[in-house]
Each structure stands twice: as C-alpha cells, then as structure tokens.
Amino acid sequence: MTTRQKIDLSVRFCGVTFKNPFLLSSSPVSNSAEMVERAFEHGWAGVCYKTLNSDRIPIIHPSPRMAGYNYGEKRLVGLQNVEQISDRPLKDNLADFLYLKKKYPDRPIIASIMGFSNEEWGWLAKAAEDHGADMLELNFSCPHMTVEGSGHKVGQAFHLLEKFTATVKNAVKIPVLAKMTPNITDMTEPAIYAKKGGADGISAVNTFRAISGIGRDDLVPKPNVFGVGAMSGYSGSAIKPIALHFIAEMAQCAELDLPLSAIGGVETWIDALEYLLVGATTIQVTTGIIHYGYRIVEDMIEGITDYMASRGITSMADLIGKSLPHLKSTDHFDLKRQGVAQYDLERCVGCGQCYIVCRDAGGQALEWDAQERRPKLDEDKCLSCMICSFICPVPEMISFKEKPEGWARRQTPVKDEGFLKQVKVAPFHGA
Amino acid sequence: MSYAERFQEMEKGFDLVQAMAEADRCLLCHEPPCSKGCPAETDPGTFIRKLHLRNVTGAIRTVKMNNPLGGACGVLCPTPRLCEKQCSATGIDRSVEIGKIQRALIEYSWKTGLPSLERPSQRPEKVAVVGSGPAGLSCAAELARCGISVTVFEEHAEPGGVIRYGVPGYRFDAAFLKHELADIESLGVKFVCGTRIEGARGVETLLSEGYQAVFLAPGLWGAERIPGGENAKGVFTSVDFLAALREGRANELAAQIDGKSVAVIGGGSVAMDCIQCALKLGARDAFLVYRRSFSQMPAEENERVAALLLGAHFMALNQPVKYETDGTGKLTGITLLRTRLGPEDETGRRAPSGIKGSEWVLEADVAIEAIGNRVGSADWSGAVKVDRKRLVLADSKTGKTSAKTIYAGGDIVRGAGLVVEAVQDGKLAARAIREALS
C-alpha cells in the first residue's frame, strides 16, 4: 500500500508534459475556451481542440446531428453523430487558444486541423502553432467527409496521409500526431505512413462508420436529418473493445514504435487503465463526457490513483504497456491444458438460463432437475465456453476450473449411428 | 432459537453488485437534490456517481469523509423522508435506495479492507468528548482526522451510546457497530469507558487536566414517566427495557414477558422497537396504546407496518389514565380513556380529547412506557446555560455554548433527534473547535 500523495499521474507525451493522461478529444466537448476552461477546472490535463477550419469552406452542421444507441434500458451505450469540424471562425478559435494558454499555461493545447489541400494543411498548422498550440493532431479520419482527399478519405489513402504529414512537419516545430480512422483493416499500415511523413505520435481511433438505428415509421436511418440518414461516426462504450485492439496492435508494432494517444469509449478509470496497459500514454474522451459531463475525470483520477496505491505503483511508466507481454497470437495457447465450468449451486436461484444456453449454444452438458429447479453439469461434456457464466444472474456462481492432465472431453455423438454407413468421404490427403 | 439470538443480527444488506445495479438507476443529477436532503451532508449525489463510474474506493472515501457513521446512518436513517424523498428518480418510478447503497459501500470496505481515510500527522491539541453516541463519535472522528488528540469518555461499559443501548440489535447489531468504532479508533481516537463525567464538576476537571475544549454529547438517558409507573411492578421505561436487551438480559426479560400480555405506551420509533422486542420475547398479546390516530404516529411508516405485521395490536385513540395493580403492587392492567380527534392544534395536527365516561381497563402483565426521553441525572447547568427542560443551549451551526471552551451537540441540545442530525452536530462542533484551537 502506497500513500496516495506519492503517486504521480503525469506523463511525457511526444516531449510535452501532461499532469495526468486524460484529455478532451477533438469534438463537440472541446468547441470553445468556455467549455475547455470548465473541463480544466474539473481536472482534465489538456485538450485536443475541435478541428480548426480555414474558413475557406463554410461549415454547417446537419440538424439533428446525433442519435443515441441503447441496449435495452441501458441508455447511450453507443452514440452516432454527423457533426462536422468546427463551424466557428478560425480567428475566434485562435483567440480562445490565446486565452487558454494565458490562464492555464500548464495545460497543453493540441490543435486538431484538417486541410482540403496540401497548402491548407501547412497554413493551418502554422496558424495554430503561432497562437500557442503545443502540439498538432492531423484529422485524417473524420468519417463524414465526402470530398476525396479529406477526412477519413485521407486516412484510407496512405500516400496522401504521408504527404500531408510531411507538409505539416515542414511548416512547424511543435510535435505532430496523426489521427487514424478505424474504418480500415490494419491500422499499423497507415500509421507507418504517418511515421514516414514525420509524425511524432498516433491518435486513434476516430469514430466508426455505422448505422445506429432506423425509424420504424419513416424507414429513415438515424439521425434523421429531414428525411435523410447517412452512415456516420459511431462511438462510446460499444466500440471500446474494438478500439482497444487497434491501440494494442500499434503498440506491439516494432516498426511503428511511436507514442500513442488512445480514444474510444472511455467512461471510467477502468476503461482508461486498459488503454494504458496496452500501451497508450494519453487518453482522449468525448462520448463519456457527452454522457456524464466533464466531472467523470474526477473519478478517473481518483480511481486510477487508488488502483496504483493498492498495487504500490507510483508512476505511470509502471502501467503503460504492462499487459503487452501477455498479449500474443492464438497459436501461443497451451491446448493441452483444459478446464470446465463449475457451479456453486448453494447460491443458485433456479432461473435455468444456463440450461437454455448450454442446450442451444453450448455442449448440452447440463441436465435440468425440474423438481429442484437446478442444473446438473456433466463435466465430460462441458466445452468451457463459459457462456453460462456470462448470463448467470448470480455473481461468480459459475467459475472456470482446470481439469487434471489427461482429462479428455467427450466427443459430441452423432444423432443416429445408422447414417454413418452412408457417409462416403475419404480422408483428405491434399496439400 | 434462544431469546438472545432473536436480537443479535440485523438483516443482510446489499452486496456490492446489488449496490452497483442500484447506483446504475441513479440519474446522476445536476446539483443532486438527494445531497441537499441529507442533514449530515453525506453527499449521496457524489458517492453514488462515484460508484456508478466504478470508482468504488472513492465512493467509500466520500461517505467516510462526510459522515464517520456512514454505515450506521445507512442502516438507521429514515431515508424515505430525507435523501430519498428528494430523489429525481421518483419522477420516473421510485427513488434510488440510497441508504442501502451507503451501507453496502461501508460493509464492502470492511470486507475487503479497502482503506479510504489516511491517518493524519499528530497535532499538539487535546480535546475531550463526553459521550460516545453518534454526536460524540462524529465530533471525535472529525477532530482526529485533522490530527487533534481526542479522548471520548463514556459512562456505559461499551461505546456507542444510543446506537448500542437504545436500539435493538436486530435493527443495528453489535458486530456492525464494532466495525464502525474500529474505523474511528484507527484515526487515533481514544475511548475511556465506564467513566461518568459528573455534570459541571466533571467538565471543570477535564479542563483542568489540560483538555483545551470539551464537547458535551451525553445524550438523553432519563425517561418521561406516567404517574404511578415508578411503583407498579411490571412497568418499564423504554430506556431501561432496550438497554437491558443490549446488556444481554434477554432471558430475564423473557421470564416476565413470554406468554404474557404487554402494553407499550407511545407512538414513536422507540415504541415500535419496544413492541417488536416484546413480541420477539414471546408476548402473547402486545398492545400499542396511543392517544392519537395511526396516521399521526411519529414513528416511520415502515416501523409501524413492521410492528403490525409482527402481530402488534394498535390501540389508537386511547389515553392511559392509571395503572391497575393487585395487592402485591403487581401490574394487572391499565385504565384507558377513549379519545376523539378535535380541531387542529398549534402543530397542525388534530388534537385528541378524552371522551367522558369511556374509561375501560386493558388487561396487561407488563407495560413499557415509550413516551419520550429527557435529560438524565447529570446536571450541566453549573458549566453552561440550560433551558427549562435542562437541555444545553448551544449554537446550531457551531455547537458553541455559553462557556468559551465548552461545545455541545446531539440529543442533549436538540432533544431526541435522528442519528444523522447528531452526526452533523458533532461535525460542525469539531470544525468550530478546530478553528478556535488554531
């Protein structure tokens, strides 16, 4: 047990110090100094400011611009948006930079920028640097852009991504992050292009192209913008597991070897911790704030501090990437070791959901005692899929236990052995 | 089950998983109204948000920082008329069960040994607390948290005051109290039990011994009486009856009550405790005698219903007139006068008046008077100003009395109040003492 006062949450990221790893991501939550100021007061260490625009193309947000995705009664597990980049004049945003830098000199501003031409990328980068930005984030990933050579279209066209990164690097001295779209298969590939262009770090992920729902009366996908829906950016808790894998994959990529700023479904300190453990140095948040407000950072800070105290860890370096040695490809599994589910029937309430799922989706390893309303497990048939434990309403009533060496699972029998005689297939001997 | 066992343990509360599920129902309000509804500023809006966001240790820390008796309040608070009454979720279906969440957090901290408060570095100041009930414990914990040495003097053999000797064990058990006290002791608070501070003289002695301030929180250990009760055999006061149960004298009481007819007089929470205890001790019939109506009883709704469901017979609109005894002075019954409700009195309640000639005798072997507590035998008037009822006069925001270094809070100031109110008194006085000493 370490005292909480000794714990240091600060991180060095691309040469810039942040007092903790938690930042606002470039989005509606970082739209103005008024908002960012309030966030800083709650404890956010820095901001990726809403993507700057050079005023060349007018930005008008569709209305309405978001749709929530619920799971049963659980509200807002996911969020879809058709938000655009900042619709404020560049001058106003830069004035807000100056205000924030004066009032909060220790809170880095990461200016997100998006150009529509090579020249515009360099011009915006310089404007941001000249007005106090400590770092840049190149928005190669906004999923709502239809113009070729902008937003996620860049993120999918790797040579453009490299070129624009190089242009920005030539224009400024401050560190440059490239923000990745998840709407691809392998993120390490474009990330390496960004590195070739000179990027100092990678931010990921932007939102996933998705359809969060369809109106059952009007048949219009959501959000319904006056009769029209569009595939657009989806975020929130629902995408966290997928975003987590993108970060881990980049952290494991020796060729990439760049610091990472993780984005994707962070609401609690546990979410943040998981991103740190797979190699992120900073954590960016939007949907969590859209759900709960800036106040969630207080719980992220307190929660992670208590976690570190309980493990005797005092610096972030002792957390970042610490799960990576345990993360391997599936061919590393020791398949000789096998186990089964075990049931603590003393605590069973007799709902029988385990029986249903084992029968219909598992190994038919359970029998149902209708009199007692209890499942009875035949261990030799248990597949150890553990789905019974996922749906069981009694916490930790069903757990995994390893079987001794030499134990073998019983094969699933054929329904009618009489048909075996009719099976005419010779063993495969091909290459 | 032995008589004693019927009183030992309270019902299980939520485990952490249930508490989290309940916290997930919380609407996480802006400017949480529940937090405004807590007399001790325990701030449920914050600790439930923390739990909702899986910041469990932080949630426990919030409860403990704001309320050193957070566990006890989670169990004993009449939450439906405090924090839960303010809950915005009632506008949708029903309030979040705040008290149960609070209790679960504290029990979880005991189960897992999760530390939430760190012991501060010691300061030179020394303060004495008289009485180890909710007000005294709260004041002691708050002072100890900022490094001040605190010694708590308790007249009874064990610390806890009213939450040990004035509440039956099935409502608040000894094991739970032991944990709560251990948390307070871990802050460095010292307890001296079995030591009575004798009124004004006792306080002077403490001050002369080097204590720089004294917090008076002795509680109310005297009982209001019905004339004649002192002399009839078989008549108890609620104070003596409940304390006897907590002192392990269940068998002795059962010998008088099992199979007998018991009358409990009063309509408050203590009366409900007494009648339920009588039934648990085997009373054949237990009558609750109350001069007003069921809806006018000050006891909480759930307490009234629990008593009814346990088998109590409620005799509303009946006023005790006198005890009936046999030749040996043993109680045989109580003469009651039927009442009717007239116009509203100054409290806004319809006032009862006796119906002439309606006297009747309720046969009873045992009577328990639960009509209110008052100041016990200790006289504080030499040390501080007191009122007509001998309650100590103290400022409600600081606990300051008429004497410079003497503070007071809890029932000795406000009359019989809630645990959570006493906690706040102790906390506020501790802050004032800290300020005065620094």
Structure characterization notes:
- The complex is a heterodimer of chains A (431) and B (438).
- Chain A is an alpha/beta fold.
- Chain A has 2 domains: 4-326, TIM Barrel (Alpha-Beta Barrel); 334-417, Alpha-Beta Plaits (2-Layer Sandwich), CATH 3.30.70.20.
- In chain A, 28% of the residues lie in helices and 19% in strands.
- Chain A is built from 12 helices and 18 strands.
- Chain A has an 8-stranded parallel barrel with strand order 3-4-7-8-9-10-13-14, surrounded by 8 helices.
- Chain B folds into 3 domains: 11-112, Alpha-helical ferredoxin (Fumarate Reductase Iron-sulfur Protein, Chain B, domain 2, Orthogonal Bundle); 126-220 and 375-437, FAD/NAD(P)-binding domain; 223-372, FAD/NAD(P)-binding domain.
- The longest helix of chain B has 19 residues, at 419-437.
- Chain B is globular and about 65 Å long.
